[in-house]
Design brief:
Blueprint: E1 3-6, H1 8-16, H2 19-37, E2 51-52, E3 60-65, E4 68-74, E5 84-91, H3 127-130
Parallel strand pairs: 1-5
Antiparallel strand pairs: 2-3, 3-4, 4-5
């Protein structure tokens, strides 16, 4: 399983989701996002609609419900050969990272799925969000 971190913005947004929305996000991550991360030679499945956030290079967005989106980026590997995903804003409307957020990369394009973004590890592991 990849390593996950949560930004403070993700945690604030997470608390605003309903239980049903949180379950939908967990299910999408477990059943689609993680399996796709584990096959780096293949693109993400089309249903996740993973795209780069144009205004924020290095940040991507995925769809977890018809009206649910979450942004993420990659950090330095913590587990050899596994992606390190940093979850950013999440919500049921288009969400975008704020430019003043200190942990947003501004250099380079969307990295490959297992690339190291070199971001500070200022957030805690997100395993509890996927354990249920």
């Amino acid at each position: 399983m990849p390593a996950f971190e949560l930004t403070p913005r993700f945690e604030r947004d997470w608390r605003k989701l309903t239980a049903q929305q949180g379950n939908a996000f967990r299910k999408t991550v477990r059943e689609a996002f993680i399996p796709d991360l584990d096959t780096p030679d293949q693109p993400f499945r089309p249903g996740l609609r993973v795209t780069g956030v144009t205004a924020h290079p290095g940040v991507s967005e995925m769809t977890w419900a018809p009206d649910g989106r979450a942004t993420f980026s990659y950090g330095e590997e913590r587990i050899a050969g596994k992606a390190h995903v940093i979850w950013r804003p999440i919500g049921t409307t288009p969400c975008s990272p704020r430019p003043q957020d200190p942990d947003i990369r501004r250099d380079g394009d969307l990295p490959p799925r297992r690339a190291s973004a070199g971001l500070p590890a200022a957030t805690r592991q997100a395993d509890l969000y996927y354990a249920q």
